[in-house]
Amino acid sequence: MKYDLEMLEKSIGYKFNKIELLSTALTHSSFSNEQKAKGIPCECNERLEFLGDAILSMITSEYIFTKYPDTPEGDLSKLRAEAVEGDSEKDYSRKLNVGEYLILGKGEELSGGRTKKKLLEDAFEAIVAAIYLDGGYDAACNFVLPFITDKLDGALTDTDSTDYKTKLQILIQKEGPGEHLEYRTVSEYGPDHNKTFEVEVKLNSNVIGHGKGPSIKHAEKAAAKDALRLFGIK
């Protein structure tokens, strides 16, 4: 366990006025419960995690809402999910080496708590809240946004991702405001139990991709994948 939090502050890029907020953000309930059993008051990071989750969602939502002004609600939700769901928060914590600073109970320590996905995610959200409480919304934004922008930029070249529509949306919106994607079903054929749908995707008025699939959703994904090839992205 690293009790000296100065290095973590440097990694975070924020100097706390109240360092106890950062300490609490790193304190797992397993350690807190052990201390309370000894009659020692000790707050864990669960309340900070609750607040940080909301702040992280707000910062991310505000960013993509402003960055992608022509994007409909459904695609905005996908962009937000790309930035903060899955393994994203765990990866953000690992970049900061947060696991090395977690304050864990003996059982959690022995079971490998420093590398557990849930603990790393919770700690990241708690750190967001700690920064917000210590320095305000702008300070929290300055901490969060580099992770978000790197994640969305990285999504374009992530060969493990199959959300081709999200990839295409990110790529097009990077070109600037006024660019508009539209998916249009151009045909469907076959019996009701085995239909095939054909979809084209347009950038403004230009068709940039075609796709087929057993549902409109699958055909749209195939069309987006086809369009990405046009931009040199597989």
Structure, explained:
- The chain is mainly alpha-helical and 234 residues long.
- It has eleven helices and three strands.
- It has a three-stranded antiparallel beta sheet, with helices on one face.
- Helix 2 packs antiparallel against helix 8, helix 5 packs across helix 10 and helix 8 packs antiparallel against helix 9.
- The two termini are 43 Å apart.
Keywords:
single chain, 234 residues, mainly alpha, three-stranded antiparallel sheet, 11 helices, 3 strands, 56% helix
Task: Kindly name the structural category.
Answer: mainly alpha
Helix tally equals 11
Mean pLDDT across all amino acids: 88
Sheet with the most strands: spatial strand order: 1-2-3
Work out the helicity level: 55-70%
Residue fraction in strands? 5-15%
Shape: elongated
User: How many β-strands, per DSSP?
Assistant: 3
Query: What is the straight-line distance between the termini?
Result: 43 Å
* Helix-strand sequence: HHHHHHHHHHEEEH
Radius of gyration: 22 Å
Low-pLDDT residue intervals, each spanning 5 or more residues: none
Concise description?
The chain has 234 residues and is mainly alpha-helical. It has eleven helices and three strands, in the order H-H-H-H-H-H-H-H-H-H-E-E-E-H.
Question: Layout of helices and strands, plus pairs?
Answer:
Blueprint: H1 6-12, H2 19-25, H3 29-37, H4 46-67, H5 73-84, H6 88-95, H7 106-110, H8 117-135, H9 137-154, H10 164-173, E1 181-189, E2 196-203, E3 206-213, H11 216-230
